[in-house]
Every structure is written in structure tokens, then in C-alpha cells.
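Hi there. Long-time user, first ticket. I'm pasting a complex I've been working with (about 523 residues overall). I'd like to know whether the download I got is complete or cut off, because the file seemed smaller than I expected. Thanks.
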Amino acid sequence: MTVNAGDTAWILVSSALVMLMTPGLALFYGGMARRRNLLSTIMMSFAALGVVGVLWVLYGYSLSFGSDNGGFIGGFDFIGLMGVGQQPSEVYASTVPHLAFMVYQGMFAIITVALITGAVVERIKFKALMIFSVLWLTIVYCPVAHWVWGDGGWMAELGALDFAGGAVVHINAGVSALALVMLLGRRKGFPQESMEPNNIPMVVLGAGLLWFGWFGFNAGSALSSGGLAANAFVATNISAASAAATWMLISWINRRPSLLGVVTGAVAGLVAITPAAGFVTPMAGIPIGIVVSLISYYSIILMKTKLGFDDSLDVFAVHGIGGIWGALATGIFASLAVNPDGAAGLIEGNGMQLLIQLASIVAVAAFAFVITWILAKIVDVTVGLRVGEMEEAVGLDLSQHGERAYGGLLR
Amino acid sequence: MKKIEAIIREEKLEAVKKALEEKSYFGMTVSEVSGRGRQKGIPLQSRVGEYRVDLLPKLKIELVVFDEDVSAAVDAIVRNARTGSIGDGKVFILPVENVIRVRTGDSGNNAI
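Hi, the file is complete. Here it is re-exported in full:
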């Protein structure tokens, strides 16, 4: 095991790219909140960079990637980065320094925690969110990351394919978001009052940063700089583009081509290709992208309009449903010609892979939902999940942080 | 002295301003306001479908004129702000007790 300069450069750059996705997500979410909750929404994502960034090196990496305990969780061998140095790890990414692999994985943990927050903006108590985030990282994220990516993880042993985190990041965050919404309840005024986004250009900037960073997320998951990374890179762009164009068309057919719709579609397309990017041909990005926009679009209508869940920024519909489709699509389109370490999918005659993917979806979704529910319940009965009515009416910027987005004499 | 407060469509500002200018009414204060009348709002696009916004952006023009100029000024505003559709706005005319020019301390008709 020797360090390869090209691979190391790519993983370090990819780590920086994925890091930038979290501030990007903060802007993406922030622009969709109402003006009085803009800072608090941004804060919820950005805080993960701080809190998870520290916890990851203290114990998160170890619980996710340490030596296996029954396929369920990693051990304590990498606590405080013990034994994680400039040489490659013995089992992961054998051509890059262990430190580079560790920090790359840390960026995924950070953004996964941040993703959940979009569902609960404008009414969750910041203190409660922080306590929940620590618990969730430890008891939900680290085990699930171990199942899928850890050496000896049971889902990896089963043969489930998740190239860059469709299950670990997106299904996990999306389903947890839904559980949290069910406990937390709707925002005051939902759905009678219209919740108008305060700044759509900010949403677009955030989506742009997400798209940009996603190349590191998906192509970096090759853990090497070569053909497979290029495959994942191109598949990622094709899926994002197909989904953006599809969402534009859907909104156009229903009324007018919506910018908020186009960027939402792009993000959905990025979500769906995430588990598949290094297992499918780039061209498979087209059907994967088209389908994800169709199902996410109608999932939002179903969740918000029909079922009345105030998943405020549609985390379940975009990341949960998009991630589930991505995991299934991986089982459909996977090709051994693309990645000999992967598997053949349904189209290549291996229907079994689709069943394995389905099993992995059910396991992650069930675990995430149940444990999140329990953790959120504990936080609710101890510190209380929700801000007071007055605090909600004034807005979380002032009531939780004592700051406001726009200064000046007026407004 | 009378104060004219006109709520107009944003896109009609230039035409109204020009018409007032041609009649030598230069001084005015313009502000962005939100409001509603019988128009009852418009639908906007959300991620899926649409939502209604019932307070719409308008502009408020305020100017103070001599009593005898009121009808000419109002006429310039109304003729140039009108489209004939719902949402053209309203004009209010209010009595003004006094006006003071801050720079000189002049008051009354001299300060307009």
C-alpha cells in the first residue's frame, strides 16, 4: 500500500468539494425560508460543519469505519484519530492517506445531518436540534455508514450497492426528517398561509454549489482518480441535467416553467444518481434523472397537499423518495462492465440485485425512522422540540439567535 | 395646499413621473408599498403548483401642490397610471396644514 499522488490529490479536492456542499445547502434552504427565519435556517446547516466536524474525529469515524462488531457498528480503534495517519488504511482506499479517506467521509456525515434540518425549519428549538444532531450522528448515522461502507458491515456483505450514499446519506436523512416532522408538527399557519421563499436567487446559488460539490461527492467516491471517477462524474451531470429539464417541463405543463422547480429537479437528479454513479453507465443517468423528478414532484404534492405533512423544504420527497428511487435504479441499471467490483443489475439479467437493493432500503428506512422517532421523543420530553408560539411568530432569527439577516434602519 | 397620495402600478411610474414633470410638478416622494384592493392577489409558482399572494407590490407617489393645481396633477396621474384592468390603484387627496422647507425654514406656499 503506497500513496498515489493522483488519487490523493483527487480525494483531497473531493473532500473540499463536499465540504462546500453544506454552506451551499444552507443557502439552498435559507432562500426558501421566510425572511424572519433566514439566518436560523442557514445556521442549522452551518452548525453541522462545526459540531459534526469535531465529533467525527473524536469518535464518529471510529464508530463508522473502526473494526467490525457483528456487522453493526465500528469499534473504538480510531478514537481521536488514533492510528489514522499519512499512510493508507489497511482496508479502505489503499492508495490515499488514511487521513484523507477519514476527512472525506467526515464531510458526508456533516451534510447528512444538515440535510435533515430542511424539514423542521421555522419552528424547531435550536438547542433541541443540536442535542438531536449529536444523538442522531452517533446512534443513526455511524451505524448505517458502517453497515454499508464499513469493513464487515452487514449490508456490504449482503451485496447492497451504494456508491456514494443513496442509503447512508439520502434515504437516511429523508426518512429521519419525516419522523421528526411527525413529532414536531406543522408550522403555525401551514397550510392556509402561503409560505413565500424570501430569496430565490439565494436558492439558485445554493443549488449551484450543491451541483458543483456533488462531483466530489459522487466522483470522489471512486476513491481513486481514473476511469471510474470519470464515469461517476459524467453520470452525475447527466442525471442532474435530465431531472432539471424534466421538472421544468412538469411545471411548464401545469402552468409556467419555474426556476425554483428547475433547481429542485437538479438536486433530485443528483440525489438519485448518488448510489448509482459508479455502477451504471453514464447514459443511465437520463432515465434515472427523468424518473426522479416525476416521482419527487408528485411526492411533494402527496405529502404536503394530500397528507398535510409540513416537511417544510421537502426533505423526504426529494432526498428520501429520490434516494429510494436511486437505490432501486442501481439495482436495475448496474453493470459489471462499468465496475467489476459492483454487480449486474436487472437489465443484465440479475433480478436478485434489485431485491438486495430493496432489502437495504427497507432496513435503512426502518432503522432511521424508528430510532429518530425515539431520539426526538427523548429530546422533546427533556428540553422540548419546539419554540414557543411567540418565538415562532417573531421568527427564529431573533428568538433563537438574536440576529437578523438584513440590517439597516428600515426593515 | 393639498397632498396627493397615489397608489399606482410599478410599471406606470415612468409615465406618471413624466406627465407630472411636463406640468412642472417636480417634487415627489416615491415608496414601495404592498397592498390589496379588489384584485385579491395573484398566483405564484411554488415547487409544485402554485400559491396565492394577496398583498401585491405597488408604488406610492406623494406630492404636495397648491389647491388650484390639484385637478391638473391628479389628471396627469390618473390618465397615465390607467390600464383599465383591476389593480390600477387609487388616488387620495388630503388637506395639508403647513409645509416647511428644511434648508431655509420657509413655510407655507413658499415651501412647496
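A couple of notes from our side: Chain B touches chain A through eleven residues (CB under 8 Å). Chain B has a mean pLDDT of 92.
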